[in-house]
């Protein structure tokens, strides 16, 4: 869970601090820059670039940027990209909210989110299994005291957790289809 929040935080941070150096403003290919911003799943950064480039006396080419951004949005806002974004738990701006872009992307995003949640469940169960295995290892090494009944119960619990993991993996696989 912490890693998902970290990824989202870094994405927001990176999205919010788009900057260009004065020399970059003078040589910028505004179409490519717009396309790249869209392919990152970012909101339009033209306003930020305008502030940066004003220092260099350069005005961004809004038409070229928008042409690139709109082209990038069409390439980014696909079903497959939605699955990818959702599965990784990434944050995406509202780039794909426009009619004609939203439908496929959002279907993919919903599927990706389901896959992400299922993977989190699998990871929690794998952590649970690891804790049981560690206890069993500590008992075997004499670091912990436990009765034979308790050890038997831990082995059974581990077996049940392993079955749950396999069931969750099958569920995840059925979502992937």
Automatic annotation (TrEMBL):
Superkingdom as given in the UniProt entry: Bacteria
InterPro entries: DUF2799
Coiled coil: 115-171
Keywords: Coiled coil
Protein name according to UniProt: Lipoprotein
Species, as recorded: Thiothrix nivea (strain ATCC 35100 / DSM 5205 / JP2)
């Amino acid at each position: 869970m912490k890693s998902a929040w970290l990824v989202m935080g870094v994405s927001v941070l990176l999205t919010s601090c788009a900057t260009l150096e004065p020399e970059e403003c003078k040589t910028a290919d505004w179409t490519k820059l717009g396309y790249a911003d869209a392919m990152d799943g970012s909101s339009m950064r033209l306003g930020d670039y305008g502030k940066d480039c004003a220092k260099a006396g350069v005005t961004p080419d809004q038409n070229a940027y928008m042409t690139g951004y709109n082209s990038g949005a069409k390439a980014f806002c696909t079903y497959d990209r939605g699955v990818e974004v959702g599965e990784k738990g990434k944050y995406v701006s509202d780039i794909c909210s426009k009619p004609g872009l939203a439908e496929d992307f959002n279907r993919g995003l919903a599927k990706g989110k389901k896959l992400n949640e299922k993977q989190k469940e699998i990871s929690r169960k794998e952590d649970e299994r690891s804790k049981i295995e560690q206890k069993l290892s500590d008992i075997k090494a004499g670091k912990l005291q436990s009765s034979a009944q308790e050890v038997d119960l831990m082995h059974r619990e581990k077996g049940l957790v392993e079955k749950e993991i396999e069931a969750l993996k099958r569920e995840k696989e059925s979502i992937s289809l």
